[in-house]
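Structural biology now treats backbone shape like a language. To illustrate, our science desk offers a sequence and the tokens encoding its fold:
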Amino acid sequence: MKKIYLTLPVIMVLLLTLVSTVLTANKAPEKGETLPVFNLPIPKNPAEKAYLGLSGDGFFKIPQIKAKVVIVEIYSMYCPYCQKDAPGINELYQRIQKNPDLKDKIKLIGIGAGNTPFEVEAYRKTYQVPFPLFPDKDYTIHKACGEVRTPYFIVVKNNEDGTHQIVHAQLGDYPGAEPFLELVLKASGLK
């Protein structure tokens, strides 16, 4: 009888540890954390490659983008909120590009959760997206990022020592180009 009383707490602790590990394994990226590790293909388009400050072929990680801040939008071409926000995200890109103090410091990319290269290209053409978009047809990146709903915005600050940190993350609720840019500038310390 004493064995049962001693074994039961041990089993409970093990079960709680297992459940806790499973629940936190795929949580959404949060402020103060680092971005989950995943690779994206270096763009074949020379303009996109130059925009990101990349060279060669193969794969890259987001902290390798030549910018102090990278805004990542996880979207889906089938998401009505992503479609509605697309013009505003394009405006954000244009505001950054037109500002000589920001255009080399802030870069913007999109990752199409569950989208094939064909779907990403259709989204790019339909919404005239001027920044690099990447397919995630098998949801690998989406899963690494906690299977967030779309659109999900992650603002990553690249540090001079090669490390990086998430300075802002949010689900939807895109406030418009100017307020979002202001938020990014404050969160990243660029302002």
